[in-house]
Amino acid sequence: QSPVTEATAKAVPALPDAQTVTAVTHYTDRLFSFRVTRPASLRFRSGEFVMIGLMGDPHPETGKQKPLLRAYSIASPSWDEELEFYSIKVEDGPLTSKLQHIEVGDQIILKPKPVGTLVHDALLPGKRIYFFSTGTGFAPFASLLREPDTYENYDEVIVTHTCRDVAELTYGANLIESIKQDEMMIELLGEENLAKIRYYPTTTREKSAKMGRITTLIENGELFTDLGVPPLNPETDRAMVCGSLAFNKDIAALMEAAGLHEGANSEPGEFVIEKAFVG
Ligand code: A2P
């Protein structure tokens, strides 16, 4: 065998739909975010998700590699020239056990077919929008909070984020802080629009200014008293929900009890739901 053929045989196959990592930030041993180049042809609506991943390990006998893909909400807004993602790290998670080690310059696979229900088109017009999230479920809202339509459509934008501890709130807290201070963001979204954001972070396993599951704080009315807003009303209030399956189910029940109906792209309603990427 000539050295050339040997080299060719060993060459790593180019990733299909490859994009290059441009930034990586680790927040805790469970959470990180990263940015990648955006395919020139990719158009999406803020709040949608795409399939991303890496090549899996070679098959022990055939040596063949298959892509390992998972759904990830795009955390960056539709106008951004790069794409941002916010991810959990799961030690034995097939994808995230590898993905957590990516570095600037590495490549990931990104299928450029955005879909999802956490989009303004799936909601009827209203006065006040709630973004309810837990854990990495904050990601689609990181996109929507940087989207001008969010502020054009609503007078108030209430963002709740519940995590186990304070460190897990960092990505969301930093994002809100940065959009309120970044000159480019202020110019794009408007200072008076940014004043519509009401950020309501809570923790469940570490002491913080506000503790408790958001579901409990809705049920006992504390959320509304704390913010000085009336209880949920299907005439005025809209909601987008993103968290674990159990969380989504519990919030959906609370929305329905308040008279809000679930919407979809084909039939807009008063609230919409999407499962956050887990594992
Ligand atoms: P808790 O600590 O009481 O389980 P995780 O990190 O496990 O994804 O959870 C993120 C946050 O979501 C935690 O603060 C957790 O609270 C909360 N949570 C999990 N399930 C629900 C649920 N069904 N309703 C409301 N909050 C939930």
Automatic annotation (TrEMBL):
This is ferredoxin--NADP(+) reductase. It catalyses: 2 reduced [2Fe-2S]-[ferredoxin] + NADP(+) + H(+) = 2 oxidized [2Fe-2S]-[ferredoxin] + NADPH. It comes from Loktanella salsilacus. CDD domains: FNR1. The lineage of its organism: Bacteria, Pseudomonadati, Pseudomonadota, Alphaproteobacteria, Rhodobacterales. One of its GO terms (molecular function) is ferredoxin-NADP+ reductase activity. Belongs to the ferredoxin--NADP reductase type 1 family. PANTHER family: FLAVODOXIN_FERREDOXIN--NADP REDUCTASE (PTHR47878:SF1), OXIDOREDUCTASE FAD/NAD(P)-BINDING DOMAIN PROTEIN (PTHR47878). InterPro entries: FAD-bd_FR_type, FNR_bac, FNR_nucleotide-bd, FNR_type-1, Riboflavin_synthase-like_b-brl. Residues 14-121 form the FAD-binding FR-type domain. Its cofactor is FAD. SUPFAM superfamilies: Ferredoxin reductase-like, C-terminal NADP-linked domain, Riboflavin synthase domain-like.
